[in-house]
């Protein structure tokens, strides 16, 4: 059975959501988060708004959803698409890495210049 590979992507829409709520300065978000028990510095909030986070704690996500009355899906829309199996040029077999057990060393032959 062949498994279909999937490519997953997401968008970070915090800046758009803030603008929709007429909140344009990242520093305005600091006290709103603090009211919900999330204490972040102004620079941390600035990074949260202006860059796509690789990791995000659930309490921060929950606080943002509460502040802007949105769902996580509205704040972070995701997409997943099937990725086709790569084919090799010589045939119709899927391109796969060889099993490590199939690899064998190749004997080296030393040749001196002029031979």
From TrEMBL:
<protein>
    <submittedName>
        <fullName>XRE family transcriptional regulator</fullName>
    </submittedName>
</protein>
<dbReference type="Pfam" id="PF13443">
    <property type="entry name" value="HTH_26"/>
</dbReference>
<dbReference type="InterPro" id="IPR001387">
    <property type="entry name" value="Cro/C1-type_HTH"/>
</dbReference>
<feature type="domain" description="HTH cro/C1-type">
    <location>
        <begin position="57"/>
        <end position="75"/>
    </location>
</feature>
<dbReference type="InterPro" id="IPR010982">
    <property type="entry name" value="Lambda_DNA-bd_dom_sf"/>
</dbReference>
<dbReference type="GO" id="GO:0003677">
    <property type="term" value="F:DNA binding"/>
</dbReference>
């Amino acid at each position: 059975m062949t498994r279909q590979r999937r490519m997953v992507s997401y968008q970070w829409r915090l800046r758009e959501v803030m603008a929709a709520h007429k909140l344009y300065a990242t520093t305005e978000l600091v006290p709103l988060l603090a009211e919900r028990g999330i204490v972040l510095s102004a620079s941390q909030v600035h990074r949260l708004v202006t860059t796509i986070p690789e990791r995000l704690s659930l309490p921060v996500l929950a606080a943002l959803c509460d502040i802007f009355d949105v769902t996580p899906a509205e704040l972070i829309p995701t997409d997943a698409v099937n990725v086709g199996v790569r084919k090799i040029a010589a045939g119709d077999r899927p391109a796969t890495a060889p099993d490590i057990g199939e690899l064998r060393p190749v004997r080296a032959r030393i040749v001196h210049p002029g031979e």
